[in-house]
Amino acid sequence: MAEVEEEGRKPSEEFTDESEIAFEDRAPLEEEDSEEEPKLKYERLSNGVTEILQNDAASCMTVHDKFLALGTHFGKVFLLDIQGNVTQKFEISSVKINQISLDESGEHVGICSEDGKVQVFGLYTREGFHENFDCPVKVVALHPQFTRSNYKQFVTGGNKLLLYERNWLNRWKTSVLHEGEGTITNIQWRANLIAWANNVGVKIYDISTKQRITNVLRDNVSLRPDMYPCSLCWKDNTTLIVGWGTSIKICVVKERNPTEMRDLPSRYVEIMSAFETEFFISGLAPLADQLVTLFFVKENSDQMDEEFRARPRLDIIQPLPESCEEISSDALTVRYFQDNECRDYRLEHAEGESLFYIISPKDIVVAKERDQDDHIDWLLEKKKYEEALMAAEISFKNIKRHDVQKIGMAYINHLVEKGDYDSAARKCQKVLGKNMELWENEVYRFKTIGQLKAISQYLPRGDLRLRPAIYEMILHEFLKTDYEGFATLIREWPGELYNNMAIVQAVTDHLKRDPTNSTLLTTLAELYTYDQRYDRALEIYLRLRHKDVYQLIHKHNLFSSIEDKIVLLMDFDKEKAVDMLLDNEDKISTDRVVEELADRPELLHVYLHKLFKRDHHKGQKYHERQIGLYAEYDRPNLLPFLRDSTHCPLEKALEICQQRNFVEETVFLLSRMGNCRRALQMIMEELEDVDKAIEFAKEQDDAELWEDLISYSIDKPPFITGLLNNIGTHVDPILLIHRIKEGMEIPNLRDSLVKILQDYNLQILLREGCKKILVADSLSLLQKMHRTQMRGVRVDEENICESCHATILPSDMAKPFSVVVFHCRHMFHKECLPSSGTIPGVQFCNICSAKRRGPGSGILEMKK
């Protein structure tokens, strides 16, 4: 809970003009530096008010949107502007002014004093009501619309509640609204409702229906009503807030259901909230759905048992149905608070503005809601710079006293003081924006504290760019201490930010001391690339075997520069190099590559192999050379190459394969050259693989080969078993069985014979099945053809005779006619057909017969 602090003064001390009021924590057990932000800010109303209160004392005050009206104990009324300057002064009485009332327009004022004087007049015309009563008048209230002629009404309160109305004769008519319950101490008029408080309680009167609505009794009758007066405040046209002693009630005026009226008023009051407070209430004011409450505080002294007057408190509370929640609480050190009673304090507020005036006899304090500038002030005071910066950015249109960039600079300074250089540098991006001067100042500051590395990654490098010297200074700093960081900056920064030649020279100087440093070499290559000296960059990349060499070649079309570096590229990464060379054959010819790789046959083989895979016909002139390369470096792919190549010299290939004793390749070449017997012989004799021999014989499908195979295998039982298992579908097994010598032991003979029988049965079944399918299909097709030929044929006037080419139907359908329609759909007049042929009674279509389709070939005779 915050406090407004001021040193206590003796009554004889002179006032000083203190416009600002400081805060501190009130409770002794709480931390001195509260982390809870206050809700209100305070300042003393000074200027003319200071002079007035030096010689007089405030007794009451009324607040209007445009001005203030202050009444004093010496019977004077001052009109003040909102800064406290006196604009008008009225000498009303020689004793205390009890109440000042203004209408909503601020054009009329009502004043009452302790000597019974009541004056109601216009501020711009003194015509009005002036009356002296024989008893003190405590309160006066004008109709809110008093300026309008229909509402020239006001009420006064002393021992009675009197209503004054001006009639059509311009005379004032007086009515007694209430009496007999003691002195009336407070009146509040809102719209058609008048609320007043006397010794018994609070009443509400409806001026439109001339009915008293309710009576809200006061709770603590032991308190003197003159010492602890009632506080009344209208929140809106139907909500009245009542504070008396330590009790607060929120009352709502509601319309009564017509069916329940009978003799009751048309309105009634419902108490929505009622609760007790810790201290005595001196004033109330609404703040949205909360309450601003001025408390008079009495506390017990630690040294004495008696009570003493403490500083008044201004609290913001959240009303609940039966209790309240404290939102904030400020103790105010107003002047001479030690001498004041509960009745000496008042709380007034401006409608539509969050301004609250705390009035005491010798001091007037203005409380106002803290705005965004105040919120930022508090955050900066608490060193919550990040939150302050965020708040300023969000509300930059509304703040008046602060500048977003200045707050940001304060935040950066704070981070630097803390030693959090990285965060400070990161904030520079956001705070400094496009202000080049600020950027350069910050860079030099970071240089002074030896933290250039921290700010390097956040320097502007887009539309806004600093002087090249700034970037070069940072690069030189990294080059001295951090090669990796230097390389990172070179990769990330565009080359036009700095003088490229100067940095190249600096790197070269460092390489003289450390010529094998790969980081510096790579960075130098990148710098050469920025400078478009690609040949030098390429040399370094190749020397380092750097992965970016291929990207560099492609990006900058450096193929002419690598014609003499093909071996280096292949040594670095054969796959990538070959793919690049093959993808760019138009830039580096195959002949050139073969020439460069002539002394490195293993690399030449990789290149020619991939070339052959892409296109069997490209590089055909190198197929003869490839035979030896495959034989030397890649035998598994030799046979596929021999199979796929149509440009390979078979004699040369056969010679190489025979020299190296490549049996499979030799067998293939012999078979391709037509020497199948020799090939089969090699399979049988050198490979001794009956399955391959059988497979080879099947591929060639030559009876003589089968005979040679049987002859070679007849004295080799394992071969006979293999033949018995596989020969059945190509050669009659009986031929093999008859040639087996009696008494020869053949492994798995029984299984082989069973398999032969099974294969034979399977063949029989397949033939029978095929025969059944063939017969069924033939019958089905015959039936289909028969149905088709038996269908009728449409003949109309569009058809013509294929012989005379006249219309097939006569123009006169009544005459007899004869038409012959064949199954081939050719039509003739009967008389146009030649006589029957060799077969009596059978006619053929001349057209189809001429085409040699044969008699009856798709012919159907049809007469009409």
UniProtKB/TrEMBL annotation:
Belongs to the VPS41 family. The keyword Transmembrane helix does not apply. It is found in: Cytoplasm, Cytosol; Early endosome membrane; Endosome membrane; Late endosome membrane. Plays a role in vesicle-mediated protein trafficking to lysosomal compartments including the endocytic membrane transport pathways. It comes from Amphiprion percula. This is Vacuolar protein sorting-associated protein 41 homolog. Keywords: Autophagy, Cytoplasm, Cytoplasmic vesicle, Endosome, Golgi apparatus, Lysosome, Membrane, Metal-binding, Protein transport, Transport, Zinc, Zinc-finger. GO terms for molecular function: zinc ion binding. Residues 801-849 form the RING-type domain.
